[in-house]
Amino acid sequence: MTSPHDNYFRCDSCGDTIPSPDDGMIEWISDPVSYKEYDFRIIHNKQQCSKHKHTLGLCDNYISLFLSHNGLAYLLSKLDVGSILAPSHQYGTCHIEDMRSFTEIFRRLTLPNYEISRQYHQKAINDGLFIEANEVTPYTSVMISKIIEKYHT
Ligand SMILES: [Zn+2]
After folding, report:
1. Which of 23, 79, 119, 138 is at a distance of 20 to 30 A from 100, taking alpha carbons?
2. Of the candidates 12, 23, 15, which has an alpha carbon nearest to the alpha carbon of residue 52?
3. What pLDDT sits at residue 78?
4. Ligand 1 center to residue 110 CA distance, Å?
């Protein structure tokens, strides 16, 4: 089984491969007024690939940080800062407004080979691979391997 560190990433702006986690960034917007966070993206570490380079509230950090031994701590802190910083917030402190893009980034960073398989999702949908899918099965290692075997030649 490969680790997520063995995966390559594909830039959400230019579509080219990001050869190393040090060559790529996660970028998102954190609204300075509402604190809402949205539009999480994986991009090259180049100005021209940043969708939000002129947007107030742009946040970014290296992919390698999120793949480090502290990566899950960073990702989970986006969902809730935790009971140490916010002891009275029993329902959490999540500021993510765009949960779909955050969850997709989380999958891309943590599920081995998901970055490869996701590029074939439309073909898999057209071929009926997800016809009996539930909310988990498209993202399991079995399905990821099946998609890669079928389409990634
Ligand atoms: Zn790019």
Report:
1. 23
2. 12
3. 94
4. 21
134/117 Cα distance (integer angstroms) = 17
Looking at the DSSP assignment, which residues form a beta bridge with residue 58? 29
Whether the Cβ atoms of residue 19 and residue 45 lie closer than 8 Å to each other: no
Please name the residues in contact with 112: beta carbons below 8 A apart, sequence gap of 6 or more.
1, 2, 3, 4, 6, 7, 141, 144
Q: Report in angstroms the alpha-carbon separations of 30 from 102, 113, 116, 150.
A: 12, 29, 28, 39
Q: Distance, CA 82 to ligand 1 centroid (Å)?
A: 34
pLDDT, one tens digit per residue, over 50-85 is 999 999 999 999 999 999 999 999 999 999 989 899
pLDDT at 3: 44
Distance 46 CA to ligand 1 centre (A): 7
Ligand 1 center from residue 87 Cα (angstroms):
40
Q: How many helices (H) and strands (E) would you count in the chain? A: 6, 5
**d(Cα 119, Cα 106) in Å, to the nearest integer?**
16
How far is ligand 1, taken at its centre, from the CA of residue 8, in Å? 13
How far does residue 103's CA lie from ligand 1's centre (Å)?
Answer: 21
- The amino acid at residue 111 is L
